[in-house]
Amino acid sequence: MERIGLNSDKRKGFINNPRIYGSSPFNVAVIHGGPGAPGHMAPVARELSVDWGVLEPLQSAGSIEGQIQELRAALNVHADLPVALIGSSWGAMLGWIFSARYPDLVRKLILVGSGVYEDAYATGIIETRMKRLGEQKANDALMLLEALKSPLTGDRNLIMAELGKLFTSADAYSPLTLDTENLEVRHDIFQSVWNEAKKLRSSGELLNLGKHIECPVIAVHGDYDPHPAEGIKEPLSKVLRNFQFILLEKCGHLPWFEKEARDTFYKILREQLR
Question: Whole-prediction pTM value?
Answer without folding.
Answer: 0.93
